[in-house]
Structures are given as C-alpha cells and as structure tokens.
C-alpha cells in the first residue's frame, strides 16, 4: 500500500520529526511505501508532490496544529491523529490504516 | 457535547496560535533578557540620543512581548478561518490589550473573531458582482467590528476582573501555599516535555507575568532549562555508578540536548525521553517539582522579569538570582540522580534497533477518519 502524510507539532522541532521517523519505520516493516511531509518551525520539508498524493491509497495527518495545504488531500481518504499517537503506537497506527483503506498487509509476520 | 468539543477543536486552534507565538517569545525574550541583564530598561518610546544599546534591546523585546495577546488572537482566528481570520483576530487582540483583558482576553477574542469570520464566509451570501468585496471589505470589516465591540463591551471587563482576582489571589499566597503551587507548576511544566500541557501552563504563566507576577513563568522556564541538562548529568551519575544507561545514539543526541537546555529549549530532551517515557517523566517530574517548590517558596512568588532565556533569566531576578541558580541546580541534580538510578542497565553495544519496545494500545478517540 502507498501512504502519504504530513506531520506537524506545536513547536515544530521535535515531535514533528519523531512522528515522521516512527511512521516511516513502521510502514516499511509492513512492506508499505510511505512519504511523510514535515511542517516544522523551519517550514515544509520532504514536500509531497501532486503525483505522490494522486498515487496514495490513504493520507495520514499526524498533526497537532493547523497545516498548510490541507486542501491538497480533498477527495482522498484521510486519517487524522495527534503526533503523540503516531509516536507512541506507530505500528498499530499503520495496521489501522490498512484496515481503513481495506488493504491487506503484505508482510504479515512483522505485525505487532 | 463531546462531539461538539471535538468539532470546535479549542485545543487545536490554541496550539496552532502558540506555535506562531513561540518563535516571537523566544526571539524577543532573548533580546530583552540580554538587554536587561546588561542594565537596560524597557522604555515607552526611544528618543534619539537618550538611550544606549541595552535600553534599545530591552525596548525591542518589551514591545514585542507586550503584543502577545494580539499575536495569540491573530493566531487562533487564523487557525479557525484561514487567511480571512487574520484581520479580525488582529483588531480584536488589540482591543483586548486596550481594555486590559490581557492574554486571556486575547485567547477568547481570537475564538470570537475566527468563528465570526468563518460564519460570515459560510453564511453571508452576496450577489456575484460583490464577490470580490467579500475578502477585501465585507469579512474584515464586519468580523473585526463585531468581535472588537464584543471584546470591548461584553467580554473584556469580566475578563479583566477575573485577571485581577487571580492576580490578587496569587499575590496573597504565603510560604506553604507558594511551595505547593510551585511544586505543582514545576511538575506540570515538564510532564510532557514541551507538549500541550507545557504550552498551556506557559500561556497561563504569561498571563500572570503581564500582571506583574513573575514567579510562575520563571518556575516553568527554569525547569525547561534544567531538565535537558539533568539528562546529561544522569550520564555522569550513571558512569560513577558503573552503569550504562544510554545507547550510542542517545549519547550522540545528548551532545545537542544539553546545549539546547542551556538556552531554554526543553524539546531537546524529547528524543531521549521517548525511548523510556515512564522513567523519563518520573525523573523529570520530580526534578521539576523540587525546582518549582524551591523557587516559588524562597522568592515568595517573585521571579525573572523576562519570559524566556534560560540562564539569562537569572540576572533579571534581582536579589533572588541565586535562588534561580539553586533551583536549576536542584532540578539538574534530582533529575540526573533519579534517572540514573531507575533506568535499567543496558549492554554497552546496544543500539536502537535491537531494543524491543512494547507499544501502547492506540487511542481510538484520537483517530479521525475523513
């Protein structure tokens, strides 16, 4: 499955990037493709292209604050969580995304 | 009710506003802290030839910090209504400042202005020839006027009474209650390492500082300063105990965590804490509790006149500067020793990837599918 998303926290120097890292690791473990854009205090990094968004099966927004460019994901299936959830339970979150998107987990044994 | 609260998203809008506020507090706070530490004083106006560099710095910072209610109002209104929220938020924030409703007024005003702008955009139908007038005139004019007047005539006065009452109450606190208040403040300041709780306490402490009560914001920022240093100190304590508590990656991280602490950025400790949340919070919470209790009880609730700056805050504490230093030291020592003691010994060659971390169950309330 292909996942795109945005992470953004209040201060934008720590949780934003931890959430990105944790979700990327968890998704790769399950054999998913993932790209997370970060909107930290420094600005937007790892920007999602229109093509990334078009091809994605699901959009994950791990955000505590208003993000810019949320309208890019109109008509996409979106899941919104706090950065805390993404950091604390990344594997379960990605598994949940599979459930919501209705896609099987390819690499089943890495679950849990 | 729960669905309404979730939809209204009070917390999310406040946090968005705070995320815009923080760089201003940090930048201006550092400028005013240096200026005041070197003898400057914030002036109402700078008259050419009648001020020196440090007075200029104190004034730069002081002016910016005086506008925090405006910034919080603008930020909240922007978070709710997007770009059209900025003008009414700004006007209402200034209204809150002029009627002495301060930071709380700014927060309330931001919600009013934002929702008004949002509602006008959504429900106010104009003929197509007037479409261009909507963002340039109708929304900014109507939303600013109505929310500004609500602030001045309805909300402002009760809020300023409330602020006065709270100020009076806190000023009357004596020894023991100051000790307890400080302890609670210290714990709340640090339990989530710069997260939403910390920022809420920060907003509260800033409100108080605007009323001339400097203790709370000092207690908050000094524990923010001390905690990252405390985690660095834990490394040394553990070494003395012949214990290994950090992985190689964590030791590398500590090299930036500690300097970040010195300049008052608590978030530097997050990568360390996230690897062992429960013990990290416990050690930091105990440290923060000691720090807050020492500071608030020994200074009778007085503190630094600037809201940010780490060690730079100490010179602005006047005769209490040594209490601030003592509080930082106590916090560093308590956090360091406690963390070194309760943390499990790990093999010297352990790395992040080998560690099996059990994952918390996902909080379903937090997931919104759209």
UniProtKB/TrEMBL annotation, chain B:
<feature type="transmembrane region" description="Helical">
    <location>
        <begin position="20"/>
        <end position="39"/>
    </location>
</feature>
<dbReference type="GO" id="GO:0090563">
    <property type="term" value="F:protein-phosphocysteine-sugar phosphotransferase activity"/>
</dbReference>
<feature type="transmembrane region" description="Helical">
    <location>
        <begin position="133"/>
        <end position="155"/>
    </location>
</feature>
<keyword id="KW-1003">Cell membrane</keyword>
<keyword id="KW-0813">Transport</keyword>
<keyword id="KW-0598">Phosphotransferase system</keyword>
<dbReference type="GO" id="GO:0005886">
    <property type="term" value="C:plasma membrane"/>
</dbReference>
<keyword id="KW-0812">Transmembrane</keyword>
<keyword id="KW-1133">Transmembrane helix</keyword>
<dbReference type="InterPro" id="IPR003352">
    <property type="entry name" value="PTS_EIIC"/>
</dbReference>
<dbReference type="InterPro" id="IPR013014">
    <property type="entry name" value="PTS_EIIC_2"/>
</dbReference>
<dbReference type="Pfam" id="PF02378">
    <property type="entry name" value="PTS_EIIC"/>
</dbReference>
<keyword id="KW-0472">Membrane</keyword>
<dbReference type="GO" id="GO:0008982">
    <property type="term" value="F:protein-N(PI)-phosphohistidine-sugar phosphotransferase activity"/>
</dbReference>
<dbReference type="InterPro" id="IPR006327">
    <property type="entry name" value="PTS_IIC_fruc"/>
</dbReference>
<feature type="transmembrane region" description="Helical">
    <location>
        <begin position="321"/>
        <end position="342"/>
    </location>
</feature>
<feature type="transmembrane region" description="Helical">
    <location>
        <begin position="101"/>
        <end position="121"/>
    </location>
</feature>
<dbReference type="InterPro" id="IPR050864">
    <property type="entry name" value="Bacterial_PTS_Sugar_Transport"/>
</dbReference>
<feature type="transmembrane region" description="Helical">
    <location>
        <begin position="60"/>
        <end position="81"/>
    </location>
</feature>
<dbReference type="GO" id="GO:0005351">
    <property type="term" value="F:carbohydrate:proton symporter activity"/>
</dbReference>
<feature type="domain" description="PTS EIIC type-2">
    <location>
        <begin position="10"/>
        <end position="341"/>
    </location>
</feature>
<dbReference type="GO" id="GO:0009401">
    <property type="term" value="P:phosphoenolpyruvate-dependent sugar phosphotransferase system"/>
</dbReference>
<keyword id="KW-0762">Sugar transport</keyword>
<keyword id="KW-0808">Transferase</keyword>
<protein>
    <submittedName>
        <fullName>Phosphotransferase system iic component protein</fullName>
    </submittedName>
</protein>
<feature type="transmembrane region" description="Helical">
    <location>
        <begin position="175"/>
        <end position="194"/>
    </location>
</feature>
<feature type="transmembrane region" description="Helical">
    <location>
        <begin position="281"/>
        <end position="301"/>
    </location>
</feature>
């Amino acid at each position: 499955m292909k996942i795109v998303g945005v992470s953004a926290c209040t201060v934008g120097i720590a949780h934003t990037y931890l959430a990105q890292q944790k979700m990327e690791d968890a998704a790769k473990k399950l054999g998913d493709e993932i790209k997370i854009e970060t909107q930290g205090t420094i600005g937007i990094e790892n920007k999602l292209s229109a093509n990334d968004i078009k091809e994605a099966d699901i959009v994950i927004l791990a955000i505590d604050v208003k993000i810019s460019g949320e309208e890019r994901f109109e008509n996409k299936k979106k899941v919104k969580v706090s950065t805390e959830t993404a950091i604390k339970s990344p594997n379960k979150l990605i598994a949940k995304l599979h459930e919501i998107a209705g896609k099987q987990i390819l690499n089943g044994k890495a679950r849990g | 009710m729960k669905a309404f609260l979730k939809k209204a998203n009070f917390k999310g809008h406040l946090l968005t506003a705070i995320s815009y506020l923080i760089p201003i507090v940090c930048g201006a706070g550092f400028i005013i802290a240096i200026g005041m530490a070197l003898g400057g004083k914030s002036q109402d106006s700078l008259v050419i030839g009648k001020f020196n560099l440090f007075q200029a710095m104190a004034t730069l910072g002081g002016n910016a910090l005086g506008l925090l209610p405006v910034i919080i109002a603008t930020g909240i209104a922007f978070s709710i209504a997007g770009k059209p929220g900025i003008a009414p938020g700004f006007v209402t924030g200034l209204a809150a400042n002029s009627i002495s409703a301060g930071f709380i007024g700014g927060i309330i005003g931001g919600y009013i202005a934002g929702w008004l702008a949002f509602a006008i955009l959504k429900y106010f139908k104009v003929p197509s020839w007037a479409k261009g007038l909507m963002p340039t005139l109708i929304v900014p004019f109507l939303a600013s006027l109505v929310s500004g007047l609500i602030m001045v005539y309805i909300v402002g006065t009760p809020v300023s009474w409330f602020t006065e009452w709270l100020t009076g109450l806190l000023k009357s606190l004596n020894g023991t209650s100051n000790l307890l208040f400080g302890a609670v403040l210290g714990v709340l300041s640090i339990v989530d390492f710069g997260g939403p709780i910390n920022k809420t306490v920060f907003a509260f402490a800033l409100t108080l500082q605007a009323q001339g009560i400097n203790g709370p914001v000092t207690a908050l920022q000094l524990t923010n300063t001390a905690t990252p240093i405390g985690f660095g100190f834990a490394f040394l304590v553990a070494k003395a105990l012949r214990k290994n508590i950090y992985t190689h990656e964590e030791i590398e991280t500590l090299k930036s965590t500690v300097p970040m602490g010195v300049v008052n950025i608590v978030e530097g400790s997050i990568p360390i804490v996230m690897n062992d949340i429960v013990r990290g919070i416990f050690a930091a919470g105990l440290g923060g509790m000691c720090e807050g209790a020492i500071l608030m009880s020994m200074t009778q609730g007085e503190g630094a006149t600037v809201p940010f700056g780490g060690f730079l805050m100490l010179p602005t504490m006047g005769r209490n500067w040594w209490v601030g230093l003592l509080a930082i030291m106590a916090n560093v020592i308590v956090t360091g020793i406690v963390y070194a003691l309760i943390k499990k010994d790990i093999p010297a060659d352990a790395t992040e990837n080998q560690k099996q971390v059990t994952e918390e169950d996902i909080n379903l309330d937090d997931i919104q599918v759209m």
